[in-house]
Amino acid sequence: MNDALVTVLIAMLGGAIRVSTPFMFVALGETLTEKSGRINLGLEGNLVLGAMVAYAASYLTGSPWLGVLAAGVSGLFLGALHGYICKLPKVNDIAVGIAIMSLGTGLAFFFGKPFIQPTAPRLDAIRLGDWTGNPALAQALQVNPLFFVGIALAIFMWWALRNTKWGLIVRMTGDSAASARAMGVSVDLVRFLATASGGFLAGIGGAFLSLYYPGSWNQGLSSGQGLMAVALVIFARWDPIKCIFAALLFGAAGAIGPSLQSIGISQGYYFFNAAPYILTLFIMIASARSKGAAREVPGELSMTK
Amino acid sequence: MTVQTADTIVPVKAGPDLRLLRLAEAFAIPIGALIASALAFAVFLLVIGKNPLDFYSLVWTGGFGSSFSIQNSLQRAAPLILTGLAFAIPARIGLTMIGGEGALVLGGFAAAAFAIPLVTNGVPPAVTLLLMALIAMLAGGIWIGIAGWLRHYRGVNETISSLLLSYIAIAIMNFFVEGALRDPASANKPSTMPIGDAYRIGAIPGTDVHWGFAAGIVLAIVLWVLMNRTTFGFAARMTGGNARAAKAQGLPVGWLMVVCSMIAGACAGLAGFFEVAAIHGQANASLVAGYGFTGILVSFLARHNPLAVVPVAILFGAIAASGGVVQRRMDMPDATVLVLQGIMFVVLLVSETLYGRIKLFQPPALGDRT
Question: Which residues of A touch B157 (CB under 8 A)?
Fold first, then answer.
């Protein structure tokens, strides 16, 4: 029994590290967008399109890292589209997010059809656990470089938002468009750039899905991860560092089902598949109207009002 | 509640004129957006080396070309009317509920599961179908009602929560369909026990279109009356315009939001019932067909007007009905429709910026009226 528990915990640790990376990238992208005062609900579309583009580019060029770059560019395109449309008057950013979600998934499924069968070169993992001598732990500690890129990025964003002029401009635009305008900042431009860069990051999250874990391209690859990551940003209180921990938590929740299956408990597999969604919902219920969230929320966001 | 009558304010003279202009604007801009997105999609087709004229003529013949294809289009429009209403009603009160897909799946599953003991005990089909429809509406209503309740009482964003609830609903169905309620005969595609041909809901006499289409039209009319001609609808639309002002007027904003959400869920749940009772005869993964998501687009194009939802849903039903022909004849993937819908959606939202900005539709300024 104890062995089984250890197996499950190790599998969950490995799962958390693997599953969390796309959450992390999407959440960081969304944090940047929301810090500038706009919501992009469409990052699910960026994630799916990024996954397809990464897989296709990796297959066609033979270089998975070129695939990652291509995925980022595809996300940049969708993010820029969102950013551009939202700056028109009378356009609702939440509705545009839904539209971008459907456009991104549609394009991905349309162009991704020929790439479902072939095998593309995947990203290599860094083997961090070989010294432990425990095969299960070694397996769990195979970490993809993108995981570390995500952490480094989160630390950089945390620092840059606090300590640089650009960070101040983004935060000011998000807290009060009027004062940003008074300072001579172009609110539309800042938000456009923040949404486009956020889209870029979400695209990279998609590349992780198709090029590392689960590691293939098909139409059921992402089922709401992009959306959960948006919810995660509220939970992480728009703080890049907290996004890492929130992403790990979500990753662990997502890994419950497969981990239990690894020790032969397949009863309720479909129920555990729902665990991340249920967790997200409960976290939203707990954090939506808390005092902490009310203090940290960028003042211009329409979502939490 | 106390609403102050504004009898001191003299209404602007150009009353009917203004109304007509607004109506013309409300028709012209979405139709313009539809044409613009058709052109944008034509450019997309040209870029990938397909002939747009072939595409549109195939959509026309596949959707409206023969009496068979017209009936096919109407049949596919039925769930879209209901899921369109499921987005439109909360939209009027200011909620962006995108969980129609989940309410449809849960409603269909609840109906199929509830039918099993009734069918085995030989309850008459009419009673069984009625109970199935009620349970489907109840399941869907509660599901979206939860999102509405969370929005008002806990401040949880309803767009995200309703989509999360959709994923949970699909997981609930999979859990039972793969487990306790699985029909052993369904080997490749796990399903609930079939309700049997005797318990299927039939077609509208003289057609092959199932009753869901008629139910959709009736509901659209009922909901239009509810939203436009009753105190409830007035209060709901006022809340949608400015929730804080509505609250200050003493309107029960939270109750209105929950009721509108429950109506929406009941519509989507009813769509699930018809999918089970008229098309599939059992609940399985085929219920997750994207009707809930297409319904969002239908509602936006109809400007969240329940009556306008019907023709728009027929249009999208026709596009869906022609999907097979387009796939075979033009050798295009089934996701073609998704791309078309995505482009339409984006163009449509861009067009919202035009309201009040096209000179043709504006009343003459006060200075001009001499």
Answer: 231, 234, 284, 288, 303-304
Mutate to test the interface with A, among B345, B347, B348, B354 (most CBs of A within 10 A): B345
Give the number of domains in chain A: 1
pLDDT at residue B2, as a whole number: 46
pLDDT of residue A258: 76
Q: Do A110 and B338 touch (CB under 8 A)?
A: yes
User: Which residues of chain B have a CB within 8 Å of the CB of A82?
Assistant: none
**Residue A301 located in a structural domain:** no
Judged by a CB distance cut-off of 8 A, whether residue B352 touches chain A is yes
Q: What is the mean pLDDT of residues B257-268?
A: 98
Among residues B247, B248, B245, which one has the least CA distance to residue B256? B247
Has this prediction a pTM greater than 0.80?
yes
- Mean pLDDT for each 10-residue chunk of chain A (305 residues)? 80 86 95 94 95 96 95 97 94 92 95 92 86 80 92 97 95 94 94 97 96 90 86 90 93 81 73 85 84 80 62
Domains of chain B: 74-321 (1.10.3470)
Is residue A302 one of the residues assigned to a domain?
no
Chain A, residues 5-44, CB within 8 A of chain B, namely 41
CATH of the domain at A25: 1.10.3470
Does residue B359 surpass a pLDDT of 90? Answer: no
Q: Which amino acid is at B263?
A: I
Residue A128 is predicted with a pLDDT of 84
What residues have CB less than 8 Å from A201, skipping those under 6 apart?
A25, A26, A28, A29, A32, A72, A75, A153
B166 contacts B258 by C-beta, under 8 angstroms: no
A-facing residues of B in 178-217 (CB < 8 A) are 178-179
Nearest CA of chain B to the CA of A111: how many Å? Answer: 9
